[in-house]
Specification:
Elements: H1 2-32, H2 38-57, H3 66-90, H4 95-102, H5 105-117, H6 123-140, H7 149-171, H8 177-199, H9 210-236, H10 240-247, H11 249-260, H12 268-286, H13 289-296
Helix pairs in contact: 1-4, 1-9, 1-10, 1-11, 2-8, 2-9, 3-7, 3-8, 4-7, 4-11, 5-6, 5-7, 6-12, 10-12
Length: 297
């Protein structure tokens, strides 16, 4: 029993650590993309993560067939598209807004899945959607009711993150998640590399400094390979509702880091929008089950 509690504590700590790492990544991405084009950065990030995970985990005599390749390929294309839109979007918005507007994919998933599974969204999904749309309006809409291009790109990225999650749930049945992840990262990296070679040759602006190299290494190693390992370990030993709640803290940490570094101009309207988006994610992901458990206790 003591051992189970220790594992449970470590699992929750791993999930929180992953969200802290991802929350810190928004500032770094914004800084790095001032020098490196989006696809060039993503090529380095995903191919490095694929190599790291492949070297660490794949030698364990896993049976890999062609199914892993085509499934990983489709997932990789969706993931590349999502990250590209998010990375392009952050150039024209703040790291905090980018973090929270990306998080709306959690609310979108039940509605996109409806077309596949024929399972209607429940009342919590509908409430979460209304709360989320209100929050998006507060965060993104200007006084003249227009929306910045960066915020719009970020929301489009959220759509593809939602589609990626649905595809993962469809393609991961009966498959080992590690090689599927490796092929997914490799596919994303190849997509990014092809786009970079065709459209971004000579697109590097500014000096390749040591700070830039450290930033890219942090994104590839910590934010992709390490954080993903923490997420997989944490979700394995944590109840889904608790895991979803902890993972949704990514957007909160994104704003905390951005505000602490002086990158975020917060006012009452934007803070209210952040709170509503976070509340929508919690409602959609947990169905407020943690409140009911507390009442039952």
């Amino acid at each position: 029993m003591k051992n189970e509690k220790s594992i449970g504590f470590l699992a929750r700590a791993a999930l929180i650590a992953a969200t802290v790492i991802w929350g810190s990544s928004f500032i770094i991405v914004k800084d790095v993309t001032a020098t490196l084009p989006a696809s060039t950065l993503l090529a380095i990030r995903f191919l490095s993560a694929a190599v790291i995970l492949g070297l660490v985990f794949l030698p364990k005599n896993r049976k890999i067939d062609v199914g892993y390749i085509w499934r990983g390929g489709i997932l990789g294309v969706l993931l590349y598209t999502a990250y590209t839109l998010q990375t392009l979007g952050i150039a024209d918005t703040t790291p905090g807004k980018n973090a929270f507007l990306t998080a709306v994919y959690c609310v979108m998933v039940p509605f996109f899945a409806w077309g596949i599974s024929k399972k209607r969204p429940d009342r919590y999904n509908l409430i979460a959607a209304f709360v989320c749309i209100t929050g998006i309006g507060l965060v993104s809409l200007n006084d003249d009711l227009t929306i910045r291009g960066g915020d719009l790109l970020t929301l489009a990225g959220g759509v593809f993150f939602a589609l990626h999650i649905i595809a993962v749930s469809r393609f991961s049945d009966g498959r080992d998640s590690v090689p599927l992840t490796v092929f997914q990262f490799a596919s994303s990296g190849i997509c990014a590399l092809v786009v970079a070679l065709i459209f971004e040759r000579g697109g590097v602006t500014g000096e390749i400094s040591g700070e830039l190299v450290l930033g890219v290494a942090y994104l590839a190693v910590c934010c992709t390979a390490v954080a993903l390992f923490f997420q997989n370990f944490g979700q394995k030993y944590t109840e889904p509702s608790t895991a979803s709640l902890l993972l949704s803290l990514e957007s909160v940490f994104g704003v905390i880091f951005s505000a602490a570094m002086g990158r975020e101009e917060l006012n009452a309207k934007i803070i209210a929008g952040f709170v509503l988006i976070f509340a929508a994610v919690v409602i959609s992901e947990t169905k407020l089950s943690f409140l009911f458990k507390r009442k039952a206790g």
